Amino acid sequence: MVGCGNLLRGDDGVGPILVRHLWERGVPDGARLVDGGTAGMDVAFQMRGAGRVVIVDASATGAEPGTLYRVPGAELETLPPLSGLHTHSFRWDHAIAFARWALAEACPDDITVFLVEAASVEMGADLTEPVVAGMEQVIALIERDYLAPLRPSAPDEPTVEFTDDGYLRLGADLAGQRFPSSAAVAMVREGQLWLLPLRGPQSGGLLLKQRNLAGDRSTLIREVLSDEVPVGVRRAVWDPDQGALRVSLEPEP
């Protein structure tokens, strides 16, 4: 996935900023995120050998700011023409056509372009609210259609382990599926420990640290439980409505 645009020019930076948000969420094996910036020729060569490519950039069509377009790459590869180009005018939209020529069989056939209509491209400005909303829609689509299928499948009957030194341990598959950013917030509700995934470590919360080569994760949970840690393996349930992993703290029969 390639995010294109200029970070210094307001809404034009939506592509690179989106890439940073996806980095925070956690990138599964088999996916690669690229900050394409404004170097269109680099974008072309980043496509080499990929099975599927997603390009994200801002657009300026005159539509309502934040309007989202999802366009097959095949519809854009001849627009604009490559004749008369030089490195300073080479953009991502040239990159698709150039990649077809330069990469030959190594150029992917499955290319999708997401465009978010810009409101302001003033130097030094932040993303405007409509473009942030459009970016969130793109993030959700990329997660659903491209990243989620690459994440490990969570166990049908997940378990977690509380250790006698106050840690909570999660298996690699459970952590990779439900907590891809390795950050979470924990709380106690109705006799249960609730663990909710966060976007990334910058959001605060607990850091799920890798504890072995298999990718299992652990986090210190003792303070959340007021030092009353139910040592041992416990069954867990994923609550899709609350977006939380719920673990009973009551004595098990």
From TrEMBL:
Presence of keyword Protease: yes
This protein's UniProt keywords: Hydrolase, Protease
Keyword Protease attributed: yes
Domain of life: Bacteria
Pfam families: HycI
Family matches, as InterPro entries: Peptidase_A31 (IPR000671)
GO biological process per UniProt: proteolysis
GO molecular function annotations of the record: peptidase activity
PANTHER family: HYDROGENASE 1 MATURATION PROTEASE, HYDROGENASE 2 MATURATION PROTEASE
NCBIfam families: hydrog_prot
Protein name as it appears in the record: Hydrogenase maturation protease
Record organism: Pseudonocardia abyssalis
Lineage of the species this protein comes from: Bacteria, Bacillati, Actinomycetota, Actinomycetes, Pseudonocardiales
